[in-house]
Amino acid sequence: MKFVATAIDGAFLVEPEAHADARGSFARLWCSEEFSAHGIDIGIAQASRSWNPRAGTLRGMHFQRLPSREAKLVRCERGRIFDAIIDLRPHSPTFMAHLALELDAITGAAIYVPAGCAHGFLTLEDDCAVHYMMSEGQQAQLASGVRYDDPAFGITWPRPVACIHERDRSYPDFDPQACRDSWRRTEEPNP
Questions:
Q1: Which of 19, 38, 62, 112 is catalytic?
Q2: Strand, coil or helix: what is 142?
Q3: pTM above the 0.90 mark?
Q4: Catalytic residue among 38, 112, 132, 148
Q5: SS3 178
Q6: Which of the four pLDDT bands, split at 50, 70 and 90, describes residue 188?
Q7: What is the overall mean pLDDT for the chain?
Q8: Rg (CA), the chain
Q9: Phi-psi sector, 99: left (phi>0), alpha (psi -120 to 50), beta
């Protein structure tokens, strides 16, 4: 596998190195030793899949609030998506920056989303399936998000949104100070 550093601190594009012959190709998609060698210790606690029948479907921008430290490895297993990450870690050198790229089933590349980053995607074709491997099990009480079109982040989506959950459409404007305060409260020792 090839690990390509991105503009978001700690996020990597993970490209499989396929070996091809007359039968087709074979590529390794996960290897804990290779991830560890790149400073990524993501013990897989849960795997999930989303299926999206319509192009223009937007899911995101989701994250787990502290004290969760959920990291994700996201791969498009059918179709093509525009994938986005927003760094919501106040102590990160890339706080509030975003990364956007295309993932597709042909290349099989994945994006590693560090804990503390919001993630979402927009389907670019009908019939897209996206596979997630997460470092922690989903905790509904910690589920949160930021709005996909919040001007604080400036993500330029490549096509109009045709289908979105009302929750994802209606997150309030991002408040950087509230985000910093939330992290500070969680990091302070309990008496």
A1: 62
A2: helix
A3: yes
A4: 132
A5: helix
A6: low
A7: 93
A8: 17
A9: beta
Residues 6+ apart with CB under 8 A from 177: none
Whether 62 is a known active-site residue: answer: yes
Taken in order of first residue, the domains within the chain and their CATH numbers are 2-187 (2.60.120.10)
Strands (DSSP E) found in the chain: 2-5, 12-15, 19-21, 24-26, 46-52, 57-64, 72-78, 80-87, 98-104, 110-113, 117-123, 128-134, 143-145, 163-164
Q: pLDDT tens across 148-183, in order?
A: 999 999 999 999 999 999 999 999 999 999 999 988
Contact in structure between 58 and 146 (CB atoms under 8 Å) = no
What are the pLDDT digits (tens) for 47-81? Answer: 999 999 999 999 999 999 989 999 999 999 999 99
**Alpha-carbon span 16 to 162, nearest angstrom:** 31
Tokens of 15: 């490209």
CA torsion 68-48-170-11 (nearest 10°) is: 60
**Rounded CA gap, 60 and 148, in Å?**
6
**Is 148 an annotated catalytic residue?**
no
Task: Please name the helix (run of DSSP H) or strand (run of DSSP E) that holds residue 183, with its range, or none.
Answer: helix 176-187
Indicate the length of the chain as a whole number: 191
What amino acid occupies position 26? F
